[in-house]
Amino acid sequence: MALFSRNPKKETKAKKSSAAATPRTKTREATTAIRARAAVALTAPWISEKALIGTEKGVYVFAVSHVATKGDIARAIETVYKVVPRSVRIVNLPGKRVSRRTTSGVALRPRRRKAYVYLKKGDTIQFA
């Protein structure tokens, strides 16, 4: 009757609460493989007026690779800037059609990808 009982198992709740109660606050030691992956994940800081306004609130914007995941970006921020991000959000920007003064008439700008990195209060990143 264990399959149909209405009593939740206490062991599973205890395991979930202990895993959720330990946030990542410690930076990892960077090995050569992690540094190489970080170099591929982060392309450059995204410099725009909107991005500079966000830095006052602890939100930093980076141009990232198309194959980089949120975990890769978080690890790259940890290794390069020695700061643990609170969260990472990724935005895919489509390529835009641009008119040209040639016989073809139309060109396509490349697609891009950027990541918004949220830091805790008091943490900052220095680009220069």
Structural summary, described in words:
With 128 residues, this protein is of the alpha+beta class. It has one domain: 2-Layer Sandwich (Alpha-Beta Plaits), CATH 3.30.70. It is built from 4 helices and 6 strands; from the N terminus they run H-H-E-H-E-H-E-E-E-E. The strands form 2 sheets. It has a 4-stranded antiparallel β-sheet with strand order 1-2-6-3. It has a two-stranded antiparallel sheet with strand order 4-5. A hairpin with a 6-residue loop joins strand 4 and strand 5. The longest helix has 12 residues.
Please outline what is shown here.
The chain has helices spanning 10-20, 32-41, 49-54, 70-81; strands at residues 42-45, 59-64, 87-93, 97-99, 106-108, 112-118.
Please describe the structure with a list of short key phrases separated by commas or semicolons.
two-stranded antiparallel ribbon, 128 residues, four-stranded antiparallel beta sheet, single chain, 23% strand, alpha+beta
Q: Helix and strand layout, with pairings?
A:
Layout: H1 10-20, H2 32-41, E1 42-45, H3 49-54, E2 59-64, H4 70-81, E3 87-93, E4 97-99, E5 106-108, E6 112-118
Antiparallel strand pairs: 1-2, 2-6, 3-6, 4-5
